[in-house]
Write a structure and sequence with these properties.
By secondary structure, the chain is α+β, with helices and mostly antiparallel strands. The protein contains 15 helices and 19 strands.
Length: 416
Amino acid sequence: MSLRSSGLPISMSDIAVIGAGPAGLMAAEVLAKAGARVVVYDAMPSAGRKFLMAGRGGLNLTHGEALPDFLKRYGAAESHLAPVIHGFTPTDLRAWSEALGQPTFIGSSGRVFPEAFKASPLLRAWLRRLGESGVTFAFRHRWTGWNADGELRLATPDGEKLVSSKATVLALGGASWAKLGSDGAWVDILAARGVAIAPLRPVNVGFDVAWSEIFKDRFEGQPLKGIALSFGAHGVRGEAMVTRSGIEGGGIYALSSVLREAVRADGKAVLHMALRPDLDVGDLARKLAVSRGKQSFSNFLRKAIHLSPVAIGLLQEVAVAEGVQLAALAPERLAALINAVPVTLIGVAPIARAISSAGGVVFDEIDDAFMLKRMPGVFVAGEMLDWEAPTGGYLLQASFATGVAAGQGALNWLKL
């Protein structure tokens, strides 16, 4: 017996959007502007929970670099994402934000932020405009798949409900920050329908390091600023932060994809840190060759080459692990170590602690309109798709742009 004959209530809408994050909300906006009747369903009690978290330290909407360089940040997914980002560019995203009363500015790093800096004013204005355009919301509605008649199944506090829609946009996110709604539960639902899913993996994530108790007790939460990090042919300037279990931060996130794959393949990866990248080894050696007099070695390093306590602690941590006495090293050897401190990463932090995730619906499963080839009328957007990007505005830009593309795809399919 189908659920249709079980007496469950059936709601009707032109288009159901599943997921009230940036991709889902943008798809809803595109659809509503064309006159479609749109209902946005989300398992959480309110919209944009992860979006608000992303903006807690400043909402990095997009990046101001030239578009050809911008697109390279998507790596293997560049060819798939380039058309939709050309269709909704960083310039378009900034204009969209300004139309919501949130003008933007480009920071010194090239990152683009709203002048209000936080996510909440932008989200409030956006939800207000969506409501005015006729979009309705149903929160605490967790999508659990389809029944035998093709109706959407939604678990609610009042029991299961069914929804019949002419088209559906899925924008459920990846699997990072599961407590904010992106829990990856959709993977099994789509896989059961034959949709190919690349395994979900953490991106922009920290790594495990076997710190000594002394080091982590003293330096947990301390930042390493103005450093350079390298792994093989990959390098970046940035910052890192010592955690109780390892290391994280912007510089680490920028290399996290290659580091993650190395750890998966070999069980570890040796990351090198230059603590004074603005000085070459020769300059460092000359500064270190000066007599330190009666100073402690730590004070000498702090004054002679301006190393922070956590940087000195890191040097000492590595020296102890390798059975080396820092004070006994020749200036040239010490200088070389300071600008290539080896840090052995032995594990990847769980995906639930990652900023974003890789993997998802492979691009071969969707057409140019972002519709699932196996499921006509079902469109996919955002982090559900198999792409990844570093922090810096690239994540949100692709989420917004794929939301626009899925919304336009649904409109074209419905001929609205």
